Amino acid sequence: MALPGTTRANEPAFGNGGGGGRKHFLDLADLAPATLREILDLGAAFKRAAPPGGDPAPLAGKTLAMIFEKPSTRTRVSFEVGMRQLGGDVVILSHSETQLGRGESIADTARVLSRYVDIIMLRTVSVAHLEEMVQHATVPVINGLSDRSHPCQLMADIMTFEERLGPIAGRVVAWTGDGNNVAASWIEAAVRFGFTLRLACPEPLRPPAGVLDWAASEGGDITVTIDPKDAVSGADCVVTDTWLSMGEGTGEDRSPEERIELLTPYRVDDGLMALAKPDAIFLHCLPASREREVAPSVIDGPRSAVWDEAENRLHTQKGILSWCLA
Ligand code: CP
Ligand code: NVA
User: Fold this and answer.
1) Does position 1 have pLDDT exceeding 90, yes or no?
2) Which of 79, 109, 199, 267 has the lowest CB atom count within 10 Å?
């Protein structure tokens, strides 16, 4: 069941553990802070090569199926390598190469895959597909990115922040750019991990009202401004993401050129980073455009933690997989 009050307006009410006690990893909002901390601790233990219980292959005999409706480099490789390092096996399904691409339903795919595998990860164009998968599968489901959120990414981001700067609770993170799926997961993370999040977004590209309303109802310390300088001033961490997310343009009537024009004032360059704390770090989930959202001097500079962040996808996926399958 979802935690009381964690279902966001306009979002399906899939909660963790629904249906046969399965442990899904769908959104940070669905999970208690202690559970998220447990998953991070598991990932950190695997990173230190100190697996809980001393078993280096706790997922031997288990198989993960991954379905990709959108491209991926990090999510695909980190889940595959992570699962294998934990002793498990992996099957990768691209939407276009399966019967899904010819119109077989997600519900039927979920029923069949559940007879073969122990856990399913879905990267999807629509959160409704994730809901359908959860409803009809009988194994745990992981959200590997949807149009609405990217919770796996945030686990790596929190791990990276804490490795560099210590506990994130009470600290200040600034997001500048598109109020997209990754921004939504940062909002959920701010509530669950207890940090301040200041988002700077152009008015038409604010995060969805649903997730902001949910955060407010949970007492989250989250502000949205149109001024990136306001957001970044004194921050411990500056985060951005692509201005053109995968699938952008399918659900909105704004052209890529219009998005770029709206977002150009939100580019992270040395001038903006200079307003953050002297030891502030820069994060980006990648893939990045050095021509658009971030200057090469920032992403390739000394304050960038993006390669640790990408590496930590591997360690945190192992935490997520082992928690779901425990
Ligand atoms: N950050 C991230 O999810 O990257 P991929 O799209 O390469 O998986
Ligand atoms: N916001 C980006 C994240 C990619 C990992 C997208 O959805 O394309």
Assistant:
1) no
2) 267
